[in-house]
Amino acid sequence: MSYLLSRLNYVDLTNDAYAQYHLDLDALFVKTGPGVVGIKTIYDARYHPALKDIVADLDPVRESKLTGKINEQDKLRDNLYRYLVMIVKATRLHYNPTMADAARDMQVLVDNYGNITRKSYDKASAALDDFLRELDAPKNAALVATIGLTECVTRLAAANATFIALMRERYGEVLARPTSHMKAARVVMDAAFRALLNRVEAIVTLNGMDFVPEMATFIAELNAITDRYKHILATERGRRAARKPGENEEVDNAGTNEDRE
C-alpha cells in the first residue's frame, strides 16, 4: 500500500524514543494548528490525551533520583579507565626498558577489550569486571605495579562496583513499576495516531493538496520527523549488525558514549 504520509514501525522504538517521536510531532501539530489541517477532533479527543498518558508513564523513570548518580558514576569510571589506557600507551615509550616492556605487555590486554567507554552501561560493567579480574592475576598485577597503576586499578574497581550497585537499585525501581500500563498506553496511542494520519490522507485524497494552503508544508514537516526516526532506527540496526564481539576500538579523551543506554 502506498501512503502519502511516511510510516514508521513504532514497535522498534524504545519507550523513551517513542515518547520523544510523538512529542516532536505534537510540537508540529501545535505550531500548525490541528484545526487548520482538519485533525482537531481526533487530536483533542484521542491523540493528545494518549500522548499525556505516555509521558506520564515515563516521568518516574526520567525523574528518578538515581539517574544523576548513575551518570556521574559512569563518568568517574570512564575517566579512570581512560586514564589507565593513556598511561599504558604513554609508558610504552618510557626510557626505563622494564616499564616500557611492562606497558607493551599490558597494552595487549587493553586492546583485547577495546573501547569500553563506548559500550552500553551493562556491557561496559561486564567488560570492566572481566578486565579487572584479568588484572588481578599475579602476572598482570605485577605489570600494573611496575607501571604504577595499582591505585588507579583499585579506584576503577570500586567505581565499577558502585555503578553496578546503583544500576541494580535502578532496576529495582523499574521492576516496582507496572509495565503493562505503558504497553496498553502505546496501543491506544498507535490507534489514535493511525486515525490522525488516515484523516489527513483522506482530506488530501478528497480535496487535493491545495485545499488547505498549509497542508503541503505540514505534510513535508511531518514526514521529515518520521524519516528522521527511521534513519535513527536504521543506523542503530546497522551498528548492531556491524559490531563484533571483542572488536577493538581506539580509546581517547574525546570519545563519546554513542551506545549508552
Q: Tally the helices: what do you get?
A: 9
* Beta-strand share of residues: under 5%
Estimate the mean pLDDT confidence.
85
Number of domains: 2
Count the beta strands: 0
Element string (H = helix, E = strand):
HHHHHHHHH
Main beta sheet: strand number and arrangement? none
Give the helix level as a range of percent.
Answer: over 70%
Radius of gyration, taken over Cα atoms and rounded to an integer in Å: 25 Å
| Global morphology | elongated
Q: What is the CA–CA distance across the termini?
A: 35 Å
Poorly predicted spans: 246-259
Class of secondary structure makeup:
mainly alpha
Task: Please describe what this structure looks like.
Helices cover 74% and strands 0% of the residues. The chain is mainly α and 261 residues long. The protein has 2 domains: 10-63 and 179-238, no CATH class; 65-176, no CATH class. It is elongated and about 80 Å long. It starts with 14 loop residues before the first helix and ends in a 19-residue tail after the last helix. The model is unreliable at 246-259 (pLDDT under 50).
